[in-house]
Amino acid sequence: MTDERTIDEAEAERHRAKMAKRKAVQDAEVAGKTVEKGLLIVNTGPGKGKSTAAFGLALRMLGYGRRVGVVQFIKGAWHSGEQDALARFGDLVSWHTMGEGFTWETQDLKRDIAAAQAAWARALELMADPAIGLVVLDELNIALRYDYLDLDKVVAALKARREDLHVVVTGRNAKPALVEAADLVTEMGATKHHFAAGVKAQKGIEF
Amino acid sequence: MTDERTIDEAEAERHRAKMAKRKAVQDAEVAGKTVEKGLLIVNTGPGKGKSTAAFGLALRMLGYGRRVGVVQFIKGAWHSGEQDALARFGDLVSWHTMGEGFTWETQDLKRDIAAAQAAWARALELMADPAIGLVVLDELNIALRYDYLDLDKVVAALKARREDLHVVVTGRNAKPALVEAADLVTEMGATKHHFAAGVKAQKGIEF
């Protein structure tokens, strides 16, 4: 590939000086951050990538040989690619699909509540396991939104987590009390979505 | 765990009726989406999760036994957890770290441009490989933002990709022409960030 851009010495030097200054700022900023702690992370918003980013974090943890726990609160009726992929990590992943599908699939409120409570009980077990470095609570926000679980109790338990435990909660419409308790909250915004153009959910992308 | 919420029959029935209606709407919506195509996906915005979600997508693809190509345009000076984790998938992952670190680390504009161009040449090779189902172009937006690559040529090549190839581009400040060409654009917004509270970048979370 040809180099379309020619850089003269003056431009190269201006760039070097600017970047040296920027590096000093960055280094000072990094040096000012000294706290290490298990984070409560919330991925919310209407856009794509809430669960996907949580599983990406799981992948990162696994890369360092740390154990990961996953509880799926809502999804469960279908099979997912990430589940198969994480199976390759054997004992490092403790995966629990506790949901029975979307609320409009079960159409049974009592059953939905019972499933959410069983999932939460499993989440508490995983959070108590000192071998686990990251717990993914996939779609917990949905269970909280529909009052399947007691918000105050859930937030209190998340705040009381082990000091070195990272927890990621996903799902739209995160409750304000959870956002308040979290260390890191990312709102995934749907700037543009292919579903609007009639493209269907595709293997490897949506599931 | 005790069930704090009691559901009477009337409430259960109202829920069932509401969810049955919602299922009809959902089913109709799903049925209306029939197109299958390789997507051009852009993860941008100031929040966390742009690269992480891209690697989560890679994981999902790998779960279905599809091959994944990764080109890192900027990062490269450090080791990452996801790289180690993906190594477990052997030949299914073709990983190329072509960056030499942040621009303020190299402080050398010519070198940055040369690295970006070599990375783009590698990206074109991966995109041309029919065995690959997903190509992750990590931090390509940064290389475009600093004009290390010709935007028009890059967008034209991405648009001309194979019909069944998914491509994910990550990085802040996605160029409008790229957003225009994309099928799916997610803006990761930083609602709350632990760096602001003095918490440092931690193994398994940030890298």
What does this structure look like?
2 copies of one chain form a homodimer. Chain A is α/β, with parallel strands linked by helices and 207 residues long. Chain A has one domain: Rossmann fold, CATH 3.40.50. Helix content of chain A is 43%, strand content 18%. Chain A is built from 8 helices and 6 strands; from the N terminus they run H-E-H-E-H-E-H-H-E-H-H-E-H-E. Chain A has helices at 9-31, 50-63, 81-87, 103-106, 109-128, 140-145, 151-159, 176-181; strands spanning 40-44, 67-72, 93-97, 132-138, 166-170, 184-192. The first copy, chain A, has a 6-stranded parallel beta sheet, with helices on both faces. The longest helix of chain A is centred in the first third of the chain and has 23 residues, at 9-31. The two termini of chain A are 37 Å apart. The model of chain A has no long low-confidence stretch (mean pLDDT 88). At the A-B interface, helix 1, strand 1, helix 2, helix 3 and helix 4 of A face helix 1, strand 1, helix 2, helix 3 and helix 4 of B. Strand 6 (184-192) of chain A pairs antiparallel with strand 6 of chain B.
Could you give the topology of this structure?
2 copies of one chain form a homodimer.
Chain A: H1 9-31, E1 40-44, H2 50-63, E2 67-72, H3 81-87, E3 93-97, H4 103-106, H5 109-128, E4 132-138, H6 140-145, H7 151-159, E5 166-170, H8 176-181, E6 184-192
Parallel strand pairs in A: 1-5, 1-6, 2-3, 2-4, 4-5
